[in-house]
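Bumping my old thread because nobody answered last time. Still need a sequence for this structure:
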C-alpha cells in the first residue's frame, strides 16, 4: 500500500504542488495539485501498478484525440510518469457534479440526461474498430482477452465464492457455458459507473478512471453497470432503471442486435468478480447471490423488472 508521504514526495519531485488529498485507499493516493495556474488530478501508485496507470494514459490520450469535438462527453488528457519509487498519472482536474458518491453507500439518482450521456459514451466506445486502437492495446487484446482468458479468470474469481458457499460447481459450470455460447468482443471502458462520471459546468460528461479500458467481451459496460449497482451497491431499483433505459435506447436506434443473448456472456463473467468481492464482504452476499440467480436464469426480462 502506497504511503501518503511517499506519494506526496513523488508529486513534488515531478514539479507539482500537492494541494489536497482526494483519495487515499487501496492501491492509489490521488492528489489535487497545481503547476503554474492550472490544477491537475494526480493518481499515485506503487511501481507494481505502473502498467495500469500507463494503460490509462494511453487510453485517455487516444480517446481524447478521437472524441468528436461536438460530443457531449470528454476523456481528460493525461500523462504517465514512472519511477523506481512509484508511478504517476497526471490528468486535467475535473470539477463539476459527480453522478454518484459512495459515503459509504452509493448516493446516485442518475437523471434521464445522465443515462442518455452514458448511452452516448457506450455507443461511441463500442463503435471503435480494433484497427483504430493504439498498437499496445491491440497487441494485448490478441494475447490476453480471449475466451480462454475469461474462463481462467472466472475460475480464479470463483474459488473464494465456492469456499464461502455463495456458488456451487454446477452453477459455475453453467456460467462458463454462458460465456462460450455467444462470445463476441468490442471496446469498452470496463468501469463505467456513476462515481467515475462527472457533469462539467459546460454540460459535457467527463469520463474518468479508464485504466481498464480495452478491447474485451461485448456489452461489458452495460453488464458491469447493472451488476455493480445491483450486486455490490445493493440498489436493484437503480440497476433496473438504468438497464431499462439503456436497452430501450439501443433498441430504438436499431443497434441492439444480439443484445438479449449477447449480454449474458458479459454478465456471466462479471458476476464471478462480484462474488469474489462478496466472499470477502459479508454485507454484500445477499445482493450478490440474488444477482447471480438473475444471471443464471438467462432471461433478459428479469434484468428489466
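Sorry it took so long. Here it is:
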Amino acid at each position: 500500500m502506497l504511503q501518503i508521504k511517499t506519494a506526496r514526495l513523488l508529486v513534488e519531485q515531478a514539479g507539482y504542488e500537492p494541494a489536497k488529498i482526494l483519495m487515499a485507499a487501496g492501491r492509489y493516493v490521488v492528489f489535487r495539485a497545481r503547476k503554474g495556474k492550472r490544477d491537475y488530478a494526480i493518481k499515485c501508485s506503487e511501481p507494481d501498478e505502473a502498467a495500469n496507470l500507463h494503460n490509462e494514459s494511453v487510453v485517455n490520450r487516444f480517446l481524447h484525440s478521437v472524441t468528436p469535438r461536438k460530443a457531449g462527453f470528454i476523456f481528460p488528457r493525461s500523462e504517465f510518469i514512472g519511477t523506481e519509487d512509484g508511478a504517476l498519472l497526471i490528468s486535467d482536474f475535473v470539477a463539476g457534479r459527480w453522478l454518484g458518491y459512495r459515503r459509504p453507500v452509493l448516493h446516485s439518482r442518475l437523471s434521464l440526461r445522465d443515462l442518455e450521456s452514458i448511452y452516448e459514451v457506450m455507443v461511441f466506445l463500442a463503435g471503435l474498430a480494433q484497427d483504430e486502437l493504439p498498437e499496445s492495446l491491440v497487441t494485448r487484446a490478441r494475447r490476453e482477452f480471449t475466451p480462454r482468458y475469461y474462463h481462467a479468470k472466472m475460475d480464479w474469481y470463483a474459488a473464494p465464492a465456492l469456499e464461502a458457499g455463495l456458488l456451487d460447481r454446477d452453477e459455475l459450470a453453467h456460467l462458463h457455458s454462458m460465456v462460450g455460447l455467444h462470445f463476441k468482443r468490442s471496446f469498452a471502458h470496463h468501469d463505467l459507473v456513476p462515481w467515475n462520471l462527472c457533469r462539467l459546468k459546460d454540460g459535457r460528461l467527463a469520463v474518468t478512471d479508464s485504466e481498464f479500458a480495452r478491447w474485451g467481451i461485448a456489452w461489458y459496460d452495460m453488464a458491469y453497470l447493472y451488476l455493480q449497482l445491483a450486486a455490490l451497491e445493493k440498489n436493484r431499483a437503480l440497476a433496473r432503471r438504468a438497464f431499462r433505459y439503456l436497452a430501450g435506447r439501443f433498441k430504438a436506434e436499431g443497434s441492439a442486435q444480439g443484445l438479449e443473448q449477447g449480454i449474458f456472456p458479459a454478465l456471466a463473467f462479471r458476476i464471478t468478480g462480484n462474488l469474489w468481492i462478496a466472499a470477502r464482504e459479508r454485507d454484500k452476499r445477499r445482493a450478490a447471490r440474488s444477482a447471480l440467480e438473475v444471471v443464471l436464469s438467462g432471461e433478459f426480462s428479469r434484468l428489466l423488472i
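The radius of gyration is 19 Å. Let me know if any region looks off to you.
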